[in-house]
Every structure is written in structure tokens, then in C-alpha cells.
Design goal:
single chain, about 75% helix
């Protein structure tokens, strides 16, 4: 009989192996056999923890998204000033992507699981809570005339869209962003999101 420790180790090995395979080959091209080979677990051990490749992906995506969001919110809450918060989050996003390239590539390149798919309900709930926390920080700055009243989708696109595109180039090996370019992305995000007084 497997101990609880071995059970956790087996699950961890599957998740870590899946992250490597999904990052390198993409989810659609990764086979169940390659996941088992990468993790070094038996067929029985695999099915003890996960029902399918899609189940592994859903769990991995949800865990990765939640970890990213928790660090995002923690960084945002360090800043009371609107501009410093907006710019710091762009710098955080680029730093986190550099420190966790496989996880960042997963979030950038793969479609999130839908609500009816494994991990989908967890992803939807994480996003609701994330947007609530970001809105709680955003709202006072919007009321005092510093930040625009924008929808969550537009907020994301204006705030991190250019940074995401830079990450795509980075992950493809086409360009490594410099510190100066990251500062430029942060400044551009601020100018996109601030309220303008040039009426």
C-alpha cells in the first residue's frame, strides 16, 4: 500500500513532468504515454491521481493561474499610488515569466479549460476572486480621477497585452527583453490606463 508521502510524490512527479511536456510540445501533441514516461510513474499510479491527460492539464493550469494571481495581487497591494501600482505589475509580470518560463508559457499559449472541463470550475472561481481583488484596488483610484473606468477585459488588454506579446517573442526565442524595454512597457501601460485631463 502506498504511503501518503509516496502518493504526494507521485502526483508531484506527474504534475512536474506534465509541465515540461506541455511547455515543450503543447498539450495537444503530448500523449498520455509521454506523460507517464516523463514522470516515471506506473499506469496504476497515474490513474490513482488523474483520470486523463485533460485532467492533468486542468489541475496544472488552475494551480498555475492561482499562484500567478496571488503574487500579482500581493505586488499590487504593495502600492498605494496608482501609477506605481500599474507599472509595478507590468514589471512583476515580466519577472514572473522569466522566473517561471514553463508555467508562463502554459498560461500564454494554451486555452484555459472551460467550465465543464477538468479544472474549469476552479479557473472560473479563481478569476472571479482575482478580478474582485483587483477591482477593490482599482476603484478608489478611479474615483479620485487617476485611473479609467474600464471593463476587466479592457483593463487586462491595456495593462498586460503588450507585455504578453513581448513574452511570446521571448518564449519563441526571437527576442529577450531588456530592463529598459520592460520599463517602457510599464510606462505605456500607465499612459493607456490613466484618466486624461486634456479635455
Amino acid at each position: 500500500m502506498k504511503s501518503a508521502k509516496n502518493g504526494r510524490d507521485g502526483r508531484t512527479r506527474i504534475i512536474e513532468g506534465a509541465l515540461r511536456r506541455f511547455s515543450q510540445d503543447g498539450v495537444s501533441a503530448t500523449t498520455l504515454a509521454s506523460l507517464r514516461d516523463e514522470s516515471g510513474v506506473s499506469v496504476g499510479s497515474f490513474y490513482h491521481h488523474f483520470a486523463s491527460k485533460e485532467h492533468v492539464f486542468g489541475v496544472l493550469y488552475a494551480e498555475t493561474l492561482r499562484a500567478y494571481q496571488e503574487e500579482f495581487v500581493a505586488e499590487l497591494r504593495r502600492h498605494d499610488d496608482a501609477r506605481s501600482g500599474v507599472e509595478a505589475v507590468v514589471a512583476f509580470h515580466m519577472r514572473w515569466s522569466g522566473e517561471h518560463p514553463e508555467r508562463a508559457r502554459l498560461l500564454v499559449s494554451e486555452r484555459p479549460p472551460r467550465k465543464q472541463e477538468p479544472g474549469g470550475a476552479e479557473v472560473a472561481e479563481a478569476r472571479r476572486e482575482f478580478f474582485r481583488q483587483v477591482s477593490d484596488w482599482w476603484r478608489p483610484h478611479m474615483r479620485n480621477g487617476m485611473l479609467q473606468p474600464v471593463s476587466p477585459t479592457m483593463c487586462y488588454v491595456l495593462w498586460l497585452g503588450p507585455a504578453q506579446e513581448m513574452c511570446r517573442l521571448w518564449f519563441a526565442g526571437a527576442h529577450t527583453p531588456s530592463d529598459e524595454e520592460v520599463r517602457g512597457l510599464a510606462e505605456a501601460a500607465w499612459h493607456s490606463l490613466r484618466q486624461r485631463d486634456d479635455a
